[in-house]
Amino acid sequence: MATSVPPHPSQLIEEISELRTRHKAVILAHNYELAEVQDIADFTGDSLELSRRAAVVEAEVIVFCGVHFMAETAAILAPGRTVLLPVAEAGCPMADMITPEELLAFQADHPGAVTVTYVNSTAEIKALSDLCCTSANARAVVESIPVDRTILFVPDRHLGEWVTRGMDRQVVFWPGFCPVHQRILPEDIARKRGQFPDALVMVHPECDLAVCESADFVESTGGMLRRIADLPHGTKLILGTEVGMINRLQTARPDLVMIPAGPDLVCANMKMTRLVHVRDALLHLRHRITVNPAIADRARGAIERMLAIP
Ligand code: SF4
Fold first, then answer.
1. 6: pLDDT confidence band, cut at 50, 70 and 90?
2. Which atom number of ligand 1 is nearest to the Cα of residue 120?
3. Could you tell me the sign of the dihedral formed by the alpha carbons of 92, 98, 104, 107, in that order?
4. Which atom of ligand 1 is nearest to the CA of 267?
5. Domain ranges of the chain
6. How far is CA 118 from CA 11, 49, 160, in A?
7. Which among 129, 113, 109 is positioned nearest to 121, based on CA atoms?
8. Which of 34, 51, 64, 67 is the best mutation target for the ligand 1 pocket, counting ligand atoms within 8 Å of the beta carbon and taking the most?
9. Atom of ligand 1 nearest to the CA of 95
10. What is the CATH T-level fold of the domain 9-90+270-292, as seen in this structure?
11. Can you name the CATH fold of 184-264?
12. Which one, 96, 229, 254, 262, has the greatest CB density within 10 A?
């Protein structure tokens, strides 16, 4: 039986270019995507940056190279556009750690509480929330809530614990987590510091609180890019984040020494998308991500209330 030969990358890139023009499409890729995908994207960034970009681009078709909740957020913020997720199975384990039924029960157990939801969540969860937040603005979002109100922070316990540390607030955390960032242990940081005593440590706030507390910098993805801009030539950095982001940082500052905090800091879902999937998404206009309009309206409200916070 004849086996089909996979298309050569250069052929795929040519086909993607032709299809992108034909469909007036834009390709967005998350920082954690494979380099081959980031290289052909029109824009790369974190999930909210890309969704905001989706809301303002002129394109009729948006190919969102990331995971499901990100394409949903783009569909919420860019109603009327065709949003495609190249790999339908690319999901986020953290976003799936809370269901609408679980959130409703959580809220029923805490009447009067304000629900703050990390953007790494499904549209249905956002729709049941008062406010969304990102890893960059979570503290400002919490500070915008009157001090006498209890806060329910979902779904990422670690981000919630980090941004509310030292605050005299009543906060109840949903026990969700990012399996990639949770993999980094305080012992990993201590070991790396032993190996590289002159290195600085920078981690993402999805890491465990003890890891964050042991770091020199705790930064969102955008914050990491800003932070490295001013570091002296040759600075060594131990990084507690996904490997795709480490590659992005290294590309931005090739003169710095980037040291992953641990082995295997790979989000398998973010690595599912290959060039062939992007080509097929454009060829067949699949997999279309739609959000029920009533849910999208409520979810958009939670995002817009976040964006209104200075
Ligand atoms: S890195 Fe973590 S939070 Fe991001 S998509 Fe993967 S599992 Fe979800």
1. confident
2. 3
3. negative
4. 6
5. 9-90+270-292, 95-177+296-307, 184-264
6. 39, 14, 9
7. 129
8. 67
9. 8
10. Rossmann fold (3.40.50)
11. Rossmann fold (3.40.50)
12. 262
